[in-house]
Amino acid sequence: MASIPSPTIRARRLRRELRRLREAAGLTAESVATELGWHRSKMIRVELGHSRVTQQNVQDLLRIYQPSAEDRETLSTLARQARLKGWWNAYGDVLPDDYIGFEAEAAAISTFQSLYVPGLLQTEEYARAIILAGRTTADPDEVDRRVAARTARKALLSRDVPPKLWIILDEAAVRRVVGGHRVMRAQNARLIEACGNPRIEIQILPFVAGAHAAMGGPFTILDYDDPVLDPTIVYVDNDATTALLEEEEQVARHRLVFDHLRAKALDPDESAEFLKRVADEYPSQ
């Protein structure tokens, strides 16, 4: 799978830079929209990412902002890169939101999952069982494409410098029998194998830990190499709705919750032993 700069990340950088230049020029979104003959809502959509930023949009805005030659070159490059197609574009019908594009360049992925093993560590059969359970009316082709997309995501863990992956799993995620005992034995073996990877930390949050700070549901924190260029994002997904949170207060709140979960969960060595005990409980046939 060819590696290209994530268009999703570049589009986000482009929006942030355009807003920075507007503010540096002392201009309001309304005044810029008026000068360009745009509705004010279009400026808001462009800066918030609710509307695609075209090359022409960028040129029009740069004409008003009058940036330095260096900034102009940077923005032109970002605009070109934002129009590229990531591998996930081929699965646009089954990957409807931007999460995969943001995940593609993450330096660290910290996730809490309460009901199932996260996609990056799912076996194909486990993934298929999860997808079938959530989409009882899906046709076989759609299920196959969803499985293929989830499998393709795993290439992230094989890149030259893979992201640091920190997973906290509620005990329910490894106790719930998904797809039958054979599927669970293979899935559990995958988790045990991952415990030996120096780039992956797995912690189990046991039932005996009681109530905890993430009773409201799972979430994922995505950190990047340069937090100035690419600030942290929190992704919340409960199947009914998804949200990408970027405000500093929202990120700080979820990071604090994750720290509380880490403190309550078994440490990585204890978690590996826990997974081995669970594996022994599955019938061999």
TrEMBL record:
InterPro entries: Cro/C1-type_HTH, DUF5753, Lambda_DNA-bd_dom_sf
All copies of domain HTH cro/C1-type, residue ranges: 18-72
Name of one Pfam family that matches: HTH_31
Gene3D superfamilies: lambda repressor-like DNA-binding domains
CDD domains linked to this entry: HTH_XRE
Protein name, per record: Helix-turn-helix domain-containing protein
Native source organism of the sequence: Plantactinospora alkalitolerans
